[in-house]
Design a protein that fits this description.
Number of strands: 2
Strand order of the largest sheet: 1-2
Largest sheet: 2 strands, antiparallel
Structural class: mainly alpha
Oligomer: single chain
Radius of gyration: 20 Å
Shape: globular
Distance between the termini: 38 Å
Order of helices and strands: HHHHHEEHHHHHHHHH
Low-confidence stretches: none
Length: 361
C-alpha cells in the first residue's frame, strides 16, 4: 500500500525511499514485530478463553510435558500470520504476483493447520483430521501455486531445477516441475510442523531460514547482484524479501510470548503456514536444493520420524528413544533449554553454509 507513495516522489523527494526493497523490508519487519508484540497478549487471552483446557498433550510423549505444558493455548500462529499479513499489505508492491502467490500458500496452509488445531482442541486429543485428507488439501494448494509460479518465469528456465555450486547445471523438469515444487512446499510445511515440539524450538530456525531466503530473494531478483554472484536471475522475486522481513518481525514478537515457559504454542496454524511459505519462496527463487541445507534442521526432524516409523514397521525396533529427534534428546536427559539453544546453533551454522553456496561457483 505504501509502495504507491512512489508516485508522489516527483513532487516530494522523500517518497522515493519507498522504491527500495531494503527500506520496505525493514519497515515490514518493524510493523509486523510491533503488531504482534502489542496485540499478542489480547490474542493469547482470547485463545485461552476460547480453548479452555488449551492444547491437548500427548500421553505417550515426554512425561514432563504433561505437567509443564498442560493448559497452554495453541493456535498462536494466528498472531504470526496477522502480523505478516498487515506488514505485507502495507509495505509490499501490490502488483508483484510472487508476493501474492507465496502469501496465498502461507494463508491456505495456515487455514489447514487451523482446522487441525481446532479439531484437537475441541476433541481434546492430539489427533486432528486424517493425514490423507490433510495431504490432499496441502497438495491442491501447492500444485496450484507451483503452476502459477511456472507461468511467471521465462521458459524453459521457469520449469527447471538448478543446483548450487554448479552454475551451469540446469535440468528442465517440464511439466514435472509442478509436482516437484509441490513436494518441496508440502515437505517444508510438514517438516517445520514436526519441529514445533518445544518452547521456541521452531520459531527461531524459521526466522533464520526466512532471513536467509530474504537475502536470497533480494539477490536473485536483482540483475546486477545476480550477475556478480553468477546465480540465476529471477525477475520479481526480490519483493519476497519484504515478506521475509515480515516473518522476522512477527517471529520476534511471537518469541516474546513463546519463550520458555511458553504462554502460547504456534500450533499447526503457524508451523504449517511458515514451513509452506519458506518452501514456496525456495521454489520461486530456484533455490530448492539450498533449502535442504538452510532448513537442514527441519529435514533432520522429518527424517528422524521417517526412520523411526520404517524401522519399527520392518523390524519392530526403534532407532530413537522417541521421535521427532528433539524428544530423543529429552529422553537422554538433555534439558529443554539445552535442546532448543543447541538446535538454534545448528540452524545458524546450516544457514551460513547455505548462504555460502551463493558465492561458490
Amino acid at each position: 500500500m505504501l509502495f504507491w507513495l512512489v508516485d508522489l516522489s516527483d513532487k516530494i523527494n522523500f517518497f522515493n525511499v519507498f522504491r527500495y526493497i531494503t527500506f520496505r523490508t525493514g519497515g515490514a519487519m518493524a510493523t509486523a514485530g510491533l503488531f504482534t508484540f502489542l496485540f499478542g497478549s489480547s490474542i493469547i487471552d482470547w485463545l485461552r478463553l476460547a480453548q479452555g483446557k488449551g492444547q491437548p498433550i500427548r500421553e505417550d510423549g515426554p512425561q514432563s510435558h504433561l505437567i509443564t505444558k498442560k493448559g497452554t493455548p495453541t493456535m498462536g500462529g494466528l498472531m504470526i500470520l496477522s502480523g505478516i499479513v498487515v506488514a505485507t499489505v502495507l509495505w509490499a508492491d501490490p502488483s508483484n504476483r510472487y508476493v501474492w502467490i507465496v502469501l496465498g500458500v502461507t494463508l491456505c496452509f495456515g487455514l489447514i493447520g487451523f482446522y487441525d488445531d481446532y479439531l484437537k482442541v475441541t476433541r481434546q486429543t492430539h489427533h486432528g483430521f486424517s493425514a490423507g485428507t490433510r495431504i490432499v488439501a496441502e497438495a491442491l494448494v501447492a500444485l496450484t501455486a507451483c503452476y502459477y509460479l511456472s507461468q511467471l518465469g521465462r521458459p524453459p528456465f521457469a520449469t527447471s531445477l538448478v543446483f548450487p555450486v554448479f552454475k551451469d547445471l540446469v535440468i528442465n523438469l517440464s511439466w514435472f516441475f509442478v509436482i516437484f515444487g509441490a513436494f518441496i512446499i508440502i515437505g517444508a510445511g510438514n517438516a517445520v510442523n514436526l519441529t514445533d515440539g518445544l518452547d521456541g524450538l521452531a520459531i527461531v530456525p524459521v526466522m533464520i531460514a526466512a532471513g536467509s531466503f530474504g537475502m536470497i530473494s533480494y539477490l536473485a531478483g536483482n540483475l546486477i547482484f545476480a550477475d556478480y554472484l553468477q546465480i540465476h536471475y529471477v525477475a520479481g522475486t526480490g519483493e519476497l524479501a519484504v515478506l521475509c522481513g515480515a516473518v522476522l518481525g512477527s517471529g520476534l514478537g511471537f518469541l516474546w510470548y513463546n519463550a520458555p515457559p511458553a504462554s502460547v504454542f504456534m500450533g499447526d496454524t503457524g508451523s504449517l503456514a511458515l514451513g509452506g511459505m519458506i518452501g514456496a519462496i525456495a521454489v520461486a527463487t530456484k533455490h530448492e536444493v539450498v533449502l535442504a541445507i538452510i532448513g537442514g534442521l527441519f529435514v533432520l526432524e522429518a527424517v528422524s520420524v521417517i526412520v523411526q516409523v520404517v524401522s519399527f514397521k520392518l523390524t519392530g525396533k526403534r532407532v530413537f528413544k522417541m521421535a521427532p529427534i528433539h524428544h530423543h534428546f529429552e529422553q537422554l536427559g538433555w534439558t529443554e533449554p539445552q535442546i532448543v539453544i543447541r538446535f538454534w546453533i545448528i540452524s545458524v551454522i546450516l544457514a551460513l553454509a547455505g548462504l555460502a553456496t551463493l558465492k561458490l561457483r
